[in-house]
Amino acid sequence: MSQPTSRRGGGGGETRDTDWDGVRLHVVSGKGGTGKTTVAAALALALAAGGRKVLLVEVEGRQGIAQAFDLPPLPYEERKIAVAPGGGDVYALAIDPEEAMLEYLEMFYGIRRVGKALTRIGVVDFATTIAPGLRDVLVTGKTSEAVRRRDKLGRRAYDAVVMDAPPTGRISRFLNVTQEVAGLARVGPIKHHADLVRGVLASPETAVHFVTLLEEMPVQETLDGVAELRETGLPVGGVFVNMVRPALLPERALKAAAKGRFDSAEIALGLKAAGLADATAGASAVAEALAAEVAEHALRAELEKRERAELEEAGTPRYDLPLLPDGADLAGLYELADALRAQGAA
């Protein structure tokens, strides 16, 4: 991807030329197990770098953001959780659908205290059960409000908002709020609220990104998710290929190994020449084990190459994120954020 160029802006921290200039809401989805939350957290850090202010939003109630940043469970309020390279700030919000419902009742009907009573008798759960789309409208609406919010001087409250969204299989329905509330209300506050949310989600200020691995199922779900978003008129962002392993052998050696032409006897000679195996029998045993590992690595490399070719069909920008040898700890998040910036994703 293109390398970002930094320049100093006015009042909003460092501004940069990136692949997503003008985008203020980054929705991150992905098949379970691909590292979706980790990538969303790294993207928030990358976007905040250089003195910017970014809000990272969680909508599934899993406290994944707290775990990613090694923090206690987050309350239902916006709070600062990290400092990005260059002095930017990352804030977090773990949305509680029940609290969002109470806020909605107060905002549009002025019945906050009644809402608390409703919670005790289960009416809030009842409402979101008979109208599951309403829950999605509420949590996406809370995120959209943060995107639109301005301070008393008319400045944006946040330079960008990153949403750690539901998995790929549910993302299109989750974001298609107009369709979800069609059977609930055609006029009134709910319809007006849904239209405001849709206005943000379908605008050029939004990009829906997908996280995948170079494996068959995650890649296919990514391609399906991209196609569904385009069918519903929602803006497709980039594809983040996570946990990319480095190439350990030259291309020619990989091809030979994949075809079973990697000679263990040659490996044994190399081991003996290096003084790593004295006995001929020992050298042969080690060489055979290494040859098997090389063959396995080569087959995986061939699979990953095919999956990369499949991802080309999406026609979207693509970013590679390395496999972190020590796992996705806090230091790893900053490493991934640096990788995203280097590729122009933030």
From TrEMBL:
It comes from Microbispora amethystogenes. Gene3D superfamilies: P-loop containing nucleotide triphosphate hydrolases. Residues 1-21 are annotated as: Disordered. Residues 25-181 form the ArsA/GET3 Anion-transporting ATPase-like domain. This is ATPase. Signal peptide: none annotated. Pfam families: ArsA_ATPase (PF02374).
